[in-house]
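User: Predict the structure for this protein chain, please.
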Amino acid sequence: MSWVDVLASYLFVLKYLVYGLAIILVISGLDDLFIDLAYWFRRLYRALFVYSKHPRHEYRDLHLADEKPFAIMVPAWQEHGVVGPMAELAAKTLDYENYHIFVGTYPNDEKTQADVDAVCARFPNVHKVVCAKPGPTSKADCLNNIIGAITLFEQQAKFEFSGFILHDAEDVISAMELRLFNHLVDRKDLIQLPVYPFARKLTDFTSGHYLDEFAELHGKDVPVREALVGQVPSAGVGTCFSRRAINILLEEGQGIAFDVQSLTEDYDIGIRLRQHGLEEIFVRYPVVTSEHQNKHKLWTGKSLTQSSVVCIREYFPDTFHTAVRQKSRWIIGIVFQGFKNHAWSSDWRLNYFLWRDRKGGITNLVGFLAVLIFSQLGLLWLVQHLVNDSYNFLSIYGDEKWLAVLLTINAGLLINRMLQRFIFVTSYYGWVQGLVSLPRMVWGNIINFFANVRALRQVLAMGDARRVAWDKTSHDFPHIGEQTSRQRLGEILVQQHVLTASQIELALQNKPASQKLGRYLFSQSQITPMQLATALAAQAHVPVERFDLFAIAPSCWQILNKQLAYRYQVVVIENEKDELLLASESYLSPVTLAAISRKLGKKTRYVIALPGTVTQALEYGYSMNATEQEQLKQQYALRSRDLLDEEIAQQYSVIEIVAEQQHLSNSIVNQLLIGFEKTDISLAQYFVDKEVIDWTTLGQLNMTFSETNALSYNHPTLEATRYAHS
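Assistant: Here is the predicted structure, written as structure tokens:
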């Protein structure tokens, strides 16, 4: 065969490929155009007839509702170095307190477990879950293990979570996320927030194409889907399920909420819940604070409202191989497993969006082929016009007006696609990213093509899309500064040469299981109050301070109201210009400090006080009358410092006593105490009302109560002495 025959065959194949591609691209382009028109018409309608009559919801109103409890579920396979910073940043930034993070780990992933253990030591609201099977299993299997642990925690703490939130270990959570979920969870069963990937370098087209796709998908496509059909595909992160939704999933799956064979269990659940008639919503909720307004610059091209929406931020893969791996998993789950798990429904609107989900199996291939073929046509056109007496290659298409019309329509649709991409990327990231998104469209097509090929190969190799294994993607997390660890108290006492390692080991063997080590060592006269406070301060990475109870300024008692002071077991000892100085007898987690700061409207820091001194201070400042205060002052004057330290250290708070006697962990106690500040009863009465303990049991502990939070108690591990309690 001569080269002329080869060229003729090549041109013949190219001709019919162009025909086929032009038709497919027009169909797909018109489909996308419909979504564009629906979005802009809806946006115009809402601007003219909705927001003109009804003001937008003010984000400050989100603080008015009582905090419902939320469980954040984080699957973690080989996430060491990521889980810790995620929990740290969430604790410091979330404008919420009533939440718990459950991290699912695996028995054969010791590094991640060690990371989570370190986080749990600092954050009482973070819990480690160890899956029953070695990893990696599927993400759905890990989530099912987490739900089992959540159920057990609910039984122990005697309450129920109102919402269950999906997050990945690399997620950066918006400060107002839980406030928004708290506002909606009683009315909606699936709440999805937008995802906006972090931008890397402009030259990093691989991670950059995720910016482009999510900006348009979560800026336009999903809002239209939610508006037209009421069904929202979960993104797997930033998704909140109501209690009702989780109960339905558990009942439907006979105790198993998530499909363990699905690679996109989040997408799967969105469809399942819609079939049960549950309410789903995609929320783009702007929080335009004064700080955001001050930082906003018009010249960047960003929209003030669009760039301030409550959303999820994270880094996406920045190498070609990892991007292809991740996207092939999405394609298998949505396209191939979606066909198998979810048949076409009786609702044509839902079927339309199922078609849009599944057409990616075709358009990912067609888009790449179109780039290749039209690039070749462009080269042939250049040759015709730049080379003298060259062959008229494009004459094979003749004078086919229908093809010219198709190509013209495709050109117009392509320009529209580029315009839409530019608008939605610019609104969040600025016009620089918006411009770069245009050449990134080509690179995105290439990644999607190879991801589609990989997905096809995996499905064909396994013979069944549901048998393809979970192919996890590695993650990065933003640098948030140096993180502190929380060392064991016994180790610190040994390092400070207070006790030997053998003495610590013996104490751990002999002390009651629910009693804290420091309190036990003091009760056995093995350490002094100052030695205990010094060790606790070293553990918390804060100073130790012996404060003068009677020198606290009267105004300090007014800053923190009685119920908040008793709940957190802290007193304000100094009101400095820029922040408040608190005294506590124990470690305060970043979650607690952040909550106190929000409630007081001022920055806070704290010091560790000698045991019993804060308990005594609470009684003095909030429960004693002037006569009792004067009597206490005289008693202090009659004792030496060492004797006074010993006597004060024998005072235990109600919280300590109930936790020890009822074997309650710090996390359960913290959960129980949420809401106490809104009551006007004593801590003892509060625990009785919560059915944590009863008056009979309290009576057996030799407690006697006054009308305040005060009580007296003979602790079983100490000699029979009366102790004051709050």
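Residues 489-725 form one domain.
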